[in-house]
Amino acid sequence: MATTVLHGCDLVDGTGAEPRHGVDIVVREGTIREIVPTRPAETYGTVDEILEAAGELAIPGLINNHTHGTAYGPLFPSGHEALPPEQVRANLDRHLLEGTTTVLCVDGFVTAEALARTNDDHPLTVKLASCNTPACLEAATIADGGGLTDETRAFTARQAVEAGAVALGEIGAGHTLGGGGASYMYIPAEVARRTTVTITPRQADALKVAVLGRHISASSFDKDAVEEALEAAGLAGKLSVAEIREIVSGIVLPAFDIALQGLTEAAEYARRADVPVLVHNAAASMTQVAAIAKTEVPLIAGHSNHTSFELREALEHAEQLKELGATVDVSTLDTFGAQRLTSGPDLLYAMFESGLADTISTDYAGGHHDPILLAIDHAAKAGVVRLPAAIAMATAHVADAIPGVAPGRGRVLPGAVADLVLTDPAELARVRTVIIGGEIVVRDGARA
Ligand SMILES: [Zn+2]
């Protein structure tokens, strides 16, 4: 098999160590063999390819622990109708071109057979998580379930773990727990159906918070806030306070309690199956998430910078989770780009600056996620995190937190699997080369 030399690059190796300058990385038979101070290319004799990489930064291929729409099968833990296969492949292309070499698909109802087909169709490594426990299945069925088939329903979490699922997750979701999924999907769709008015995710979110509060409770209903939110969404005179209350409550509440129960149930399943549980961590689920953190099960607290949190609340909650041994994940969401759901980087930066963030993922953000390297670039330039530490959060820390997700990957060390990225140190999101298992799969920023 091929020998490739990444010649003369700088290296941030994923361990958190300081950058090394001017190294050659020798890859043979899919494995990183040597990392040595750079020497003239001709001294390598017969190799298959010398990749000239002077002025470029080598990092481990990113391991993204929280993605949706990255495998064939029902979308989201609400079992939504599957995306068309070409959209799944386009999503995988996008992750790949962003420097990601492994994704954990946390849609939760994907079967092993569908995952195998996904992996056959794309070079990126897609790993499976399952949310198919009785309560989570019931919550999905109530909230949506439009993409669930007899086959996906029958493929339980226990079977999924036996077939290679590396975690249970995503347990709870914006679609079953009244989070982003309600705001960018279900509420705008129902409002449009009744009024023909198209509202934005943020307008839907404001309506939801006015009706049910950030922590999702019928008792949080605030009539004045609802009137204001209707006005702001251009719905005054089109929907009454009572009508929007009924719409929002009807979408969010039926699945909510059973989805909360699903968190505790899935944690117990994960403990028995000896895999981590990856949960939807948001204002609505924080009490249950904290309770899980007190048990023995390895816990990944997904997107702990969720937009439903207030800043202080998020930091205190994350601190508590971390003290209890949980992995605190932050997601890029649409923080820097679309900003349809998030309103800027304050909370993400605060999670970095406080040292609370352990891992970085993208989540879905209604299909508008920001690249991990873009978020790291902004955060490093803002001085809230050091580059080697941030790269470790997207590589080695993920591999360590979820042992099955990317064994032998996540660090650029001799003997590791050769999943590597070459990018522009001045603009990290400008990924030039991606190598998976020693194969060059992205050249000059395009699929090879
Ligand atoms: Zn979520």
UniProtKB/TrEMBL annotation:
One of its GO terms (molecular function) is hydrolase activity, acting on carbon-nitrogen (but not peptide) bonds. Residues 203-441 form the Amidohydrolase-related domain. The keyword Coiled coil does not apply. The keyword Cell inner membrane does not apply. Gene3D superfamilies: Metal-dependent hydrolases (3.20.20.140), Urease, subunit C, domain 1 (2.30.40.10). InterPro entries: Amidohydro-rel (IPR006680), Metal-dep_hydrolase_composite (IPR011059), Metal_Hydrolase (IPR032466). Keywords: Hydrolase. It holds the Pfam family Amidohydro_1. Coiled coil: none annotated. PANTHER family: N-ACETYLGLUCOSAMINE-6-PHOSPHATE DEACETYLASE. This is Amidohydrolase family protein. It comes from Amycolatopsis echigonensis.
